[in-house]
Amino acid sequence: MIFATEDIFVDAPRPTPLYAAAASVSEANLWTSVNGWTASRVYSSVAEEYDAACNNAVIGDFGPMARYAVRGNDAAQFLARLTTAPAISLHIGEGARGLLLTDEGHVIDLAEVSRLSEELFLVTFPGPHARRVDLAARGMDVEVQDISSDVAALGIMGPQTGSALNAAGLKSVSETFAASSVLRGVETATRPLQFGGIQGVELIFPKDEALTIWERIIRRSMARPIGLDAMEILRLESGVPRSGLDFIPADRRSSATKRTPEELGLAHLAPLDGGWFNGRRALRKSAGRPERRLISLSLDAEETVPGAGVYLAGKNIGRITSCGWSPSRKRVLAFADIGAACHSPEFEVSMAMPGEKRVLAKPFETTESVLERQFSSEQGRATDFRR
User: CA–CA separation, 336 vs 94, rounded Å?
Assistant: First the structure.
């Protein structure tokens, strides 16, 4: 799951249930806030944390995410309408991604839906949407509970995730199926987690157990903590846009900044030949007529900044929305918001320095762009099921 953008005007963020444990192992002591919760940017160094995620295992505090438990006879139908995720077709233990859209088909946020039992689902959003969820549930046989403040959540990611879980005594946790159980009278959940090519597991459990489980994993396994800065590199490599950074949620801004799934390169998460979902009718009318495009670029540079201009044939066609240095690719990777009609194997990006300089930038293939291309060529069902 991708974090929402960092808060700008929060003076006193709330500590997550894992904050005390996270602070005890933080050498860098660099913090920020997400959705009003405290979040670590770096624990040791970005390079070390990124390397551990790619080659070993890392553990992160996922407490700032917004989570809802949804149950009832209409739970599947409710989620299939609220989000574009195919909740009705999910079997127990399966999960799928989707989008939260406005009636006009513009993207509000990303969503992940996991089916824990016949009538119980776990829904995770990068940001809180309690009012929208509650309003959508009216008139349906469904109970929605906002559990964001009641649970702790941590993610374990990397090729050695299984070894880390076994070392911590969590052998029963599946890396491929979502599941629920009860711990001291409180429901817990586990579900598969993925950042591009890096897979893992998310553990969601009572907040009173947070420190015990964190310490068990840290002390008994080789997993090291990972902060937002290293996860940001993984996100850029995977090609998933970040809410509030690469696009502004459609319920917050004017029509000029609203984006459809197609404009964000996420049409495969809102298939028009699937079931009915909110915004589907509007998307049918706008399909094939995007005004903007969000693309991934690889820059021949060591750094750039959000807001840098993107050029084609000397003409400004857009801007960089987010960027970061990829240690494995030795390049800056970036998202660029450009005009939909602008296609080229090469672009230029302006650099902030005396006497403006422009560097070469080429489209970069990501996990998400591959899914988008497959979907566009097949025009079939969404390819993003994780079973």
Answer: 33
The pLDDT assigned to 380 comes to 44
- DSSP three-state, residue 51: helix
Say if residues 374 and 383 touch (Cβ distance below 8 Å): yes
At 291, the amino acid letter reads: E
| pLDDT (average), residues 324-342 | 95
Q: Three-class SS of residue 303?
A: coil
> Where residue 302 falls among pLDDT bands split at 50, 70, 90?
confident
| Residue 170 confidence (pLDDT) | 84
| pLDDT tens figures, 162-217 | 999 998 888 888 888 999 876 656 667 999 998 777 899 999 998 988 888 898 89
Q: Are 106 and 279 in contact (CB under 8 A)?
A: yes
CB atoms within 10 A of CB 352: 11
End-to-end, the C-alpha distance of the chain in Å comes to 16
Please name each of the domains of the chain with its CATH number.
Answer: 19-65+148-238 (3.30.1360.120), 67-146 (3.30.70.1400), 291-386 (2.40.30.110)
Residue 109 in contact with residue 127, Cβ under 8 Å?
A: yes
307 touches 246 (CB < 8 A):
no
